[in-house]
Amino acid sequence: xxxxxxxxxxxxxxxxxxxxxxxxxxxxxxxxxxxxxxxxxxxxxxxxxxxxxxxxxxxxxxxxxxxxxxxxxxxxxxxxxxxxxxxxxxxxxxxxxxxxxxxxxxxxxxxxxxxxxxxxxxxxxxxxxxxxxxxxxxxxxxxxxxxxxxxxxxxxxxxxxxxxxxxxxxxxxxxxxxxxxxxxxxxxxxxxxxxxxxxxxxxxxxxxxxxxxxxxxxxxxxxxxxxxxxxxxxxxxxxxxxxxxxxxxxxxxxxxxxxxxxxxxxxxxxxxxxxxxxxxxxxxxxxxxxxxxxxxxxxxxxxxxxxxxxxxxxxxxxxxxxxxxxxxxxxxxxxxxxxxxxxxxxxxxxxxxxxxxxxxxxxxxxxxxxxxxxxxxxxxxxxxxxxxxxxxxxxxxxx
Amino acid sequence: xxxxxxxxxxxxxxxxxxxxxxxxxxxxxxxxxxxxxxxxxxxxxxxxxxxxxxxxxxxxxxxxxxxxxxxxxxxxxxxxxxxxxxxxxxxxxxxxxxxxxxxxxxxxxxxxxxxxxxxxxxxxxxxxxxxxxxxxxxxxxxxxxxxxxxxxxxxxxxxxxxxxxxxxxxxxxxxxxxxxxxxxxxxxxxxxxxxxxxxxxxxxxxxxxxxxxxxxxxxxxxxxxxxxxxxxxxxxxxxxxxxxxxxxxxxxxxxxxxxxxxxxxxxxxxxxxxxxxxxxxxxxxxxxxxxxxxxxxxxxxxxxxxxxxxxxxxxxxxxxxxxxxxxxxxxxxxxxxxxxxxxxxxxxxxxxxxxxxxxxxxxxxx
Lengths: 399, 366
Fold this sequence. Notes:
The complex is a heterodimer. Chain A is mostly helical.
């Protein structure tokens, strides 16, 4: 019916045609030379057009604009101080840090929530299984932008103003200006000390949780690190409580002062990103556990292991091997999705770069920066997960 | 009599057993059940009251919406703006054309989902359908008035972006997937670089590239309109993701198929077209549907570069002074709109997955 459109015949015809002139060994070589030539020509054509257009617009190509004064304010500068008088470079770094902040927090919370929901979907409790299934279906089938708009509208339109903010716990205020909460204030010296101890604590916990293949050897090793972790935690508490004070927010005049705060934009982005990603992670976790052969459960139970032991030593290690690769791509998706922040006005990398492009006209450089940053984040996450995956792989089955 | 009584008793018994096993099997399970029921009792009645009972449906009295803010939902907003949300700024007297396009699109989706039509016939149907849609939307022939594509919008535009995007990206993705497995190193490297670059960056950056950067790369005097640029960006984006799905299908085909075809004396294109692709694409259908769902949701990102799709028309309606401040209602409606299309698709792909898993399990057993 579509015989005249048949690419098999067209391709075969092409092969015969070229085959008549070129031997089978020369043909691939010629094809590749042609491809390289076409690529070079195309790139040369585009670049020469761009050079001409930029010249007419009076825009100097290159990254020189990064050291010029940005002249626009950024609403959120939590990790690095910034003012309109700073350079474009600093503005973009601030945007990048905002992206990292939102994405990291969302990834951590979405993982916890996703694992809980994924396990709950497999619950024998009918109500729990159905409720979590409903959650997953709804969240996965609505675009993230719509969800972000929804949370943002809910926060800014439906919550009361700061004067009569919701006040569920002492020191916590929820209003259409975002979330305000008390924070710990540390003397600078204590701050460094605490940082060092926290780092030590993280390393210890990572040591405890490091993957191993045999359950028995791990049971023996666990005692000392746990004691070590406990000791470090105690040191942390003692050293911190020496110079610690709680900074309570208070309502004064038109807004809150003191304490920490999360803007409506950040809260909406964090909520939307976390709930959306959690739904996908839940499906990955569920599929991972279902992928473990039923016989593994039965064999483990018949060995006399308890339900906890079966999960811990038999099912989860096998499920994790199935879960990790798609989980990695979910983490990358979550990072890339955080760029939707631009839709609700959270000053992430894309938003700041977009403002920069609009002000300077340096579209090529601006988009190159965005793409480079996301590519490096993606590559870094995938490199880390590959390393982790190798540690988890079965001995002898490494590929 | 006693038989029926026994039967009823047995049913009551089994219902009781089900309740016990399903809701109160253990202490934690019972606590979870009670907690969920309590939450539902606390949350559902006020939400239903707000969304249905106290809600304002008629758009004749917008002031009523303001009075009831916080007590009842304002659906009047949608009954007032539904034409804009469905068709954008398409001329009002020509609304039957995008309406017909919506019907044709839905028809094509359903016919494709039935999987009873032959491949070749289906391809012909799609080709005819897409041409007909183009004629209806653009006009300018057969006595239809020409409508420039700046005026296309609403749900129609969302479906068009998604459908044309996939229809164009799919063939491209097959070429990419084959090129990625090519014996020629340069072909392979170029394809891998392209696929990994696109998959490593967010769609927004690709859309920005099309809307801000692409005009710079065109010779002076040549311009491509915004809709076409966005569509191009989405095709290039979707093709990279689809290519990986198709590659998954290709990898699932045992080497012997290729070798057997080679032994029969078939050329590369004949092997690919008659032996490998039909099998690979059949395997890849469920993940392809999942990619399509993701792509359909992704069309909503054009809101950021200002195309008048389903979401943008809703957002713009909200900026009218009469309807400002009803964002919660508006975005709930938007969510419902997308859910209406994505949920059946996701159920469909789940069913296919289950069926194919069943098939392979049986295949292994025999």
